[in-house]
Amino acid sequence: VVTLCFHVPYSALTMFISRDQKERDSATAYRMMVEVLGTVLGTAIQGQIIGGNSNCPTESDAPYSTNSSSVNTTIVSLDQTKQAYLVASGVICIIYVLCAAILFFGVKEQKETGRDKSEPLTFAQGLRLVMCHGPYIKLVIGFLFTSLAFMLLEGNFALFITYALGHRKDFQNILLVIMLSGALTIPWWQWFLTRFGKKKAAYFGISWAVPFMILIVSVKSNLIVSYLVSVAAGVSVAAAFLLPWSMLPDVVDDFKVQNPDIRGHEALFYSFYVFFIKFASGVSLGISTLSLKFAGYVTGECSQPEAVSMTLKVLVSPVPVVLIAVGLLILKTYPIDEERRQGNRKLLQAML
């Protein structure tokens, strides 16, 4: 709840710091790059504090026990693990509060001008209008499927690296490589969408991960291949982070053009998009938890049954690939191309 109370107004603030599309796109790119870097920082803090409390054997320590359920050499006490999580949570909470304070005192909203005669929407009116706006529904549903795909991949990748590939001591570093690759390629995606358009960037960026999802489960476990795939996957993660938030302001602008006498609706577009993303996160968690439970996964064990390895392979490759394909097919019907976007920009300038 606390995260949602912060995330919804924080995301919607993009619409209020500038009325210019290029400036909003640039602000979105900077915001997403910092968010990914924040994720890198959180992963590093969490991994270094908590990851150091595992004493399970690596492949070199026990080459024949990767999938043997009879081996369990975890010697770290529960109290040590709890303490590690408490320390990591405390550090991250301090960073969270500090960043929120910087946002509150450092960012100024632009006041809306030229439309004093219009009345703000009630929640019921806004909900009805937003849910009936075709481009918004197509954008949200399309990215709902692609977001679910990447959440399944991200949520199970650490377990996949640990139990299916056997890189127990390297999974934190591999996750850091993915997020660093994503952070460093966000500026490139910003240039790409400016040069070729946002729909093309969405298709190319999101589909980029598909061959590497297939590769990682097709080849024999190899640490170098895992790192190479992680770098390539990070490129697609950057597109998945950036493009939905870059395209959402265009939908809001399109709504303004079609409903020039309505104001106060921006937060509704962002809040419902955040809701659908959180919904996808919940669905991803449910699918992963149930699938691993049926496969016989035991939390805290150093080794897992063979069925767990197979389930993890399915959760990080075939299922996300199908979801990405469905999401991209839906995005194909998204009507706001570059020509319509530029036309909306000119109309809004005239209105202002």
Automatic annotation (TrEMBL):
It catalyses: 1-(9Z-octadecenoyl)-sn-glycero-3-phosphocholine(in) + Na(+)(in) = 1-(9Z-octadecenoyl)-sn-glycero-3-phosphocholine(out) + Na(+)(out); a 1-acyl-sn-glycero-3-phosphocholine(in) + Na(+)(in) = a 1-acyl-sn-glycero-3-phosphocholine(out) + Na(+)(out); 1-hexadecanoyl-sn-glycero-3-phosphocholine(in) + Na(+)(in) = 1-hexadecanoyl-sn-glycero-3-phosphocholine(out) + Na(+)(out); 1-(4Z,7Z,10Z,13Z,16Z,19Z-docosahexaenoyl)-sn-glycero-3-phosphocholine(in) + Na(+)(in) = 1-(4Z,7Z,10Z,13Z,16Z,19Z-docosahexaenoyl)-sn-glycero-3-phosphocholine(out) + Na(+)(out). Its main location: membrane. It comes from the Eukaryota. GO terms for cellular component: endoplasmic reticulum membrane; plasma membrane. The keyword Glycoprotein applies. It is a multi-pass membrane protein. Gene3D superfamilies: MFS general substrate transporter like domains. It is found in: Cell membrane; Endoplasmic reticulum membrane. Pfam families: MFS_2. Keywords: Cell membrane, Disulfide bond, Endoplasmic reticulum, Glycoprotein, Lipid transport, Membrane, Symport, Transmembrane, Transmembrane helix, Transport. The chain crosses the membrane at residues 84-107, 139-165, 171-189, 201-219, 225-246, 267-290, 310-331. One of its GO terms (biological process) is lysophospholipid translocation. One of its GO terms (molecular function) is lysophospholipid:sodium symporter activity. The keyword Nucleotide-binding does not apply. InterPro entries: MFS_2, MFS_trans_sf. Belongs to the major facilitator superfamily. This is MFSD2 lysolipid transporter A, lysophospholipid. It comes from Oreochromis niloticus. The lineage of its organism: Eukaryota, Metazoa, Chordata, Craniata, Vertebrata. The gene is MFSD2A.
